[in-house]
Design brief:
The protein is α/β, with parallel strands linked by helices. The protein has eleven helices and eight strands. Strand 2, helix 3 and strand 3 form a beta-alpha-beta unit. The longest helix has 19 residues. It is globular, with a radius of gyration of 19 Å.
Length: 280
Amino acid sequence: MDAKGGEFMRDKLRGLLDYLKSYDSLVVALSGGVDSSTLAKAAALALGEMAVAVTARSELLSYDELADAETMARAAGIRHIILDVHDLDNPDVAKNDRERCYYCKRGRFEKLCAWAKQNGFAYVADGGNLDDKGDYRPGMRAIEELAPMVISPFMECGWTKADIRAQARAWGLAVADKPSAACLASRVVYDLPLTAARLSQIEAAEIIVRAFAQGQVRVRHHGNLARIEVEGEAFSSIMDHREELAAALKNLGFTFVTVDIGGYRMGSANEMLSFHIDKV
């Protein structure tokens, strides 16, 4: 980053820290991704012990993401709480229609707000940024509805994903270049009900596929069919091991295994919706 770019980021950081200091106390919803991890670090710098990170644990969160959240809380120097939220107990989440993300985020943040109130924290912060406005994200509506207690500092301060990654690198956070990782439910085709068994099936399948593919990996669950998405550079390795992969995924309970020649793309489940959505 050149001198001009460095000064720009220093100004943005000062603005973010000043914004966070305007709140008496804050719970940061920490998923373990770059957005929430960077926000947790900023909150710790701005508010010290009056900031805490809380990770919502449920069947929708993979073991690796939970481990990353724990690691990043330590790196950010912020106290970390793991809160069990039992997302699948909500029938509106489990039925998995196109509003699933709304019901899930609404339920999670209501529980985070309740925990915050019970433990003397005035506000809850979400890691959403300006780039999140480009895809179909009904969960953002839930965040807006829970204002003013729930805030989105990166959006309020005009931060993009690139800004967040740049600041994470400046702080030496290990997640600075971590690929985006939506929850396990995002892999299940709409209207196929979510169950703990299906989510575990996806988590296990992606661990298997990652042994043969660098970069982003998704295993989309279409009932009896597993649809593998990888980046273009990984296609040859996947095809070289296709028989091994097919056998392993069938052993998990899938009847058919296919590789999507379109490759990995963010939010591909939304392609099934009946209206046009601009992708990020």
